[in-house]
Design a protein that fits this description.
heterodimer, A: 278 residues, Rieske Iron-sulfur Protein, 5-stranded antiparallel sheet, B: Cytochrome Bc1 Complex, Chain C, two-stranded antiparallel sheet, 64% helix, 7% strand
Chain lengths: 278, 458
C-alpha cells in the first residue's frame, strides 16, 4: 500500500468519525462549537483525502487540445447575414404594420413601467418637516416629559416631540451647558432656556445618529464618518465630511418647568438632497 | 459497471456519448492561481445551501414584537419581527447559529475569492481578446456579489446593519436631480420605512442570486467554449492547451478544493463568532453603535465617505450633497473596470488574440495601474475603520483621517512607481536569462554518492 493510499485511508476514516460525531452532537444538542468542529473536520478529511488520494493514485497526465479559430468562416457568416436580412425584409415588407407593431410594443413596455411608481410615495416636502411644533413638549423615547430642572450641567438627552416618538427623524439631542460659553447668532439667543440647547440628532452628512458627545470640548461626533459639530457655535461643522450644521430646535420652558419647542427645526433635518431646498 | 450502463442509457436517449468522450479528456492547464475562481464558485454553492436553510426560519418583517426568546438580556425588549427571527435562528433553531455564521463567513470568503480571482485575471492579461466578454460578466458578478452581501447583512435588522442601510439611503438621496425619487422608490419612502426589509429580502434571496447564477453559467460556458488560458512553457503555444484531463485528474482536484473551502468556512462558522447581532441590539433609528464598521468588501466605500471633505456646491439653487462625490468616483471606477480591456487595447494597439498569459512583470504599465488601484482601495478600506485604529493607537481620529487623505494619493504613486521599476528590472533579468546561459546549476546526487552538476539550458 502506497503512502498516499495509507494517508487517504486515515483521512477518510477520520472524516467518517467526525461525521458520526456531528450526528451525535446534533442529537445531544451540543453547542455550536462542537457542531462546527465536527462538520468542519469531516469536510476537511474528505477534501484533503481526495487530494492526497488522487495525487497518489492518478498518474500525472498531460493532454493537449488544439485551439480552433472561433470564426465560422466567411461563407457561414455571409449565410447568417443573408438569413437575417431575408427575415428582416419579410417583417418590414408592410412598413405601416411593422411600424405600428413597434409602436404598440414600445407603448406596452412603457405601460409596464408605470407600476414602478407604486414602489414609493412622492418625496414632496416629507423630508423638510418634522413633528416639532410650537408648544409641543420634549419627551424621552419612553414618552416621559423632560423637566428642565432634571438636567444638570453636561447632561445629554435624546428627546422626541410629545405624542410623536415614532417620528425618529425628529430625534433631538438636548445638552445642558453654561449659557455664557455659547456663541450663537443673536436671533437664536432666546432658543436656549437655562442653557439647554437642542440640536437634530440626524447627521447632515449621511443620516446616522450623532451619538457621541465630547463633553469637555463641547463637540458632537457622528460615529459613522466622524463629522464633528461644535455645540457652542450652533453645531457648525469643524471636521469631517458633513457640510451643514446640525439644525437647531428653538426651545422654551413652560410654566410647569417642562422643556418644549417653540417651532420646528431651524432647517430641514438630515442629509440634503436636490429637492430639499424647494 | 454501473457507469457504463448509465452512459449507454443516456446515449440511447440523448446521444451524449460523443460529447462526453471529448469533454472528459478536455485539457485544463495547471497553475494554483487558476483555482481561485473555483473557490468563489464553491462559496456560492455553500451560500445557496446555507441560505436556503435560513429562509425557512427568517421572517423579513418590520412589525414590532416583544422579545420573549431564549436570549434573556433582551427579554421584554420591543424588536422587529426580523430581528426576533434572526435571534431565534441563533439561539433556538437547532444548528441555526452554525448555519448563520457559516453563511456570513462564506459571504466574506466569496467576495475575497472574487477579488483575488479578478486580480489574477488582470495582472496576467487574461481579459484580452477573445475574453473581453467574460471580463464584463466577471465585473458584473463582482458588483452583484457586493449587492447580495450588503442586502444580506442588512436583513437581521440589528443596530449595526440598520445604520448601514441608512447610509446607503442617504448616498442614493444625494444623487442630483433624481436622488429623492430614486431613494423613495428603492427604499419605499422616507427613511426609516417598514417597506425596506421586505424588498431587501426579495433582492437578497431571489433577484440577485438568480442574476449571479445566470451570469455564472454564462461565465463558465464561455470558459468551456474558449478554453482556458495558460502560461508560456515548453510545448505550450497560442494554438494549443496543455493541462490535466477533466476526468479524473481535474475533477478530483476541483472536488477537493470545493470540500476544503467548505471545511474552512464551516470551521470558521463553528469556532469564530461573526456578526453577534444580540450584542448590537435591535435597530433603533436614533441610536447608533460605535465603532460602526461594515463587512470588509464595503469598507472602501465607507472609507471614501469618511475621507471625502465636505463639499456641497449649489447648482441652480439645488445642493449637491457631499456623499455624492464618493458615489460618483465609485461609479466612474466601476465603468473604468468594465472598459479596461478596451482601454488597454486602445493604448497598447494590441488587438491580437492572446491565449498565453503574461507574467505580471511582462506588462509593467498594466501592473502599475493594478497596484495603484489596489493600494488606493486598500487605503480607503483602512480608512473605513479609522475610528477603531484611533481608539487602539490613542490618537485623535482627525489625524488618522488626514493621514489617509494624504495616503490615498501618495500610496498609489509610490507603490505604482516601485511596481514599474520592479517590473522593468524583472523583465530585464528575464531577457538576460533567455539570451544566455542560466546562472543556475542543477546539482544531483549520483547513486555513487558524488555530485553531478548540470547547467540549465534555457
Amino acid at each position: 500500500m502506497s503512502a498516499a493510499v495509507r494517508w487517504a485511508n486515515i483521512l477518510f476514516a477520520g472524516s467518517l468519525l467526525a461525521s458520526l460525531g456531528f450526528m451525535a452532537a446534533y442529537i445531544a444538542s451540543a453547542p455550536n462549537l462542537v457542531l462546527g468542529a465536527c462538520l468542519g473536520l469531516a469536510l476537511a478529511g474528505l477534501g484533503i483525502g481526495v487530494a492526497v488520494w488522487s495525487k497518489g493514485v492518478m498518474p500525472p497526465e498531460e493532454v493537449v487540445d488544439q485551439r480552433e479559430a472561433f470564426s465560422s468562416g466567411p461563407s457561414a457568416r455571409t449565410e447568417a447575414e443573408e438569413e437575417l436580412l431575408a427575415g428582416e425584409a419579410a417583417i418590414g415588407r408592410n412598413r405601416f404594420v411593422a411600424g405600428l407593431a413597434v409602436a404598440a410594443a414600445g407603448t406596452c413596455g412603457v405601460a409596464a413601467l408605470f407600476p414602478i411608481r407604486s414602489l414609493g410615495q412622492n418625496p414632496g416636502s416629507t423630508l423638510l418637516h418634522t413633528a416639532w411644533r410650537n408648544g409641543r413638549r420634549a419627551v424621552t423615547a419612553e414618552g416621559v416629559p423632560v423637566k428642565a430642572s432634571s438636567m444638570v450641567l453636561g447632561d445629554v438627552l435624546t428627546v422626541f416631540p410629545e405624542g410623536h416618538t415614532d417620528d425618529v427623524n425628529a430625534a433631538t439631542l438636548l445638552v445642558r451647558l453654561n449659557p455664557n460659553l455659547l456663541q450663537l447668532p443673536p436671533e437664536r439667543s432666546a432658543w436656549v432656556p437655562g442653557g439647554i440647547i437642542g440640536f437634530s440628532k440626524i447627521c447632515t452628512h449621511a443620516g446616522c445618529p450623532v451619538g457621541l458627545y465630547r463633553q469637555t470640548a463641547n463637540q458632537l461626533l457622528c460615529p459613522c464618518h466622524q463629522s464633528t459639530f461644535d455645540v457652542l457655535h450652533g453645531a457648525r461643522v469643524i471636521f469631517g465630511p458633513a457640510v451643514k450644521p446640525l439644525p437647531q430646535l428653538p426651545l422654551l420652558v413652560d410654566a410647569g418647568g417642562y422643556v418644549q419647542a417653540s417651532s420646528d427645526f431651524s432647517e430641514p433635518v438630515g442629509p440634503e438632497s436636490w429637492g430639499s431646498t424647494s | 459497471m454501473i457507469s457504463a450502463r448509465v452512459v449507454r442509457w443516456l446515449d440511447d436517449r440523448l446521444g451524449t456519448a460523443s460529447f462526453a468522450k471529448n469533454a472528459l479528456r478536455k485539457a485544463f492547464p495547471d497553475h494554483w492561481s487558476f483555482m481561485i475562481g473555483e473557490v468563489a464558485l464553491y462559496s456560492f454553492l455553500i451560500l445557496i445551501a446555507t441560505g436556503t436553510f435560513l429562509t425557512f426560519f427568517f421572517d423579513a418583517s418590520s412589525t414590532p414584537v416583544v422579545y420573549r426568546g431564549a436570549y434573556t438580556p433582551l427579554a421584554g425588549a420591543t424588536v422587529s419581527t426580523a430581528y426576533d427571527s434572526a435571534l431565534r435562528i441563533s439561539f433556538q433553531v437547532h444548528a441555526g447559529l452554525l448555519f448563520r455564521q457559516v453563511h456570513h463567513w462564506t459571504a466574506l470568503v466569496f467576495l475575497a475569492a472574487i477579488v483575488a480571482h479578478m486580480a489574477r485575471i488582470f495582472f496576467t492579461g487574461a481579459f484580452r481578446r477573445p475574453r473581453e466578454l467574460n471580463w464584463l460578466i466577471g465585473t458584473t458578478l463582482l458588483i452583484l456579489a457586493i449587492a447580495d452581501g450588503f442586502t444580506g447583512y442588512s436583513l437581521p435588522d440589528d443596530l449595526l446593519s440598520g445604520t448601514g442601510v441608512r447610509i446607503a439611503y442617504s448616498a442614493l438621496l444625494s444623487v442630483p436631480f433624481v436622488g429623492g425619487w430614486a431613494a423613495f422608490l428603492f427604499f419605499g419612502g422616507a427613511y426609516p420605512t417598514t417597506e425596506t426589509l421586505r424588498r431587501f429580502f426579495s433582492l437578497h434571496i431571489l433577484i440577485v442570486p438568480a442574476a449571479i447564477a445566470g451570469a455564472l453559467v454564462l461565465h463558465l460556458a464561455m470558459i468551456w467554449r474558449q478554453k482556458h488560458t495558460q502560461f508560456a512553457g515548453p510545448g505550450r503555444t497560442e494554438s494549443n492547451v496543455v493541462g490535466s484531463p477533466l476526468w479524473p485528474v481535474y475533477a478530483m482536484r476541483s472536488l477537493s478544493i470545493g470540500l476544503v473551502t467548505a471545511a474552512v468556512v464551516v470551521l470558521l462558522g463553528g469556532l469564530v463568532q461573526i456578526n453577534p447581532i444580540w450584542l448590537y441590539g435591535p435597530y433603533q433609528a436614533w441610536v447608533v453603535s460605535s465603532p460602526a464598521q461594515p463587512d470588509w468588501y464595503v469598507g472602501w466605500a465607507d472609507g471614501a465617505l469618511r475621507l471625502f471633505p465636505g463639499v456641497s456646491p449649489r447648482v441652480f439653487g439645488h445642493p449637491i450633497p457631499s456623499p455624492f462625490w464618493p458615489l460618483l468616483i465609485i461609479g466612474i471606477f466601476f465603468i473604468c473596470v468594465y472598459l479596461w480591456p478596451f482601454i488597454e487595447r486602445a493604448v497598447s494597439k494590441d488587438g491580437a488574440e492572446h491565449h498565453l498569459l503574461d507574467r505580471p512583470w511582462q506588462s509593467p504599465w498594466r501592473a502599475t495601474v493594478g497596484v495603484a488601484v489596489l493600494s488606493a482601495t486598500l487605503v480607503l478600506t483602512l480608512a473605513g475603520s479609522d475610528d477603531v485604529q484611533a481608539r487602539y493607537l490613542h490618537v485623535a481620529v482627525e489625524y488618522l483621517a488626514w493621514i489617509y487623505r494624504i495616503a490615498f494619493f501618495v500610496a498609489p504613486a509610490v507603490l505604482g512607481f516601485a511596481t514599474y521599476w520592479l517590473c522593468r528590472e524583472l523583465g530585464a533579468r528575464e531577457r538576460e536569462h533567455l539570451a544566455g546561459e542560466s546562472p543556475w546549476e542543477t546539482v544531483r546526487r549520483t547513486p555513487q554518492g558524488g555530485f553531478d552538476g548540470e547547467r540549465e539550458r534555457v
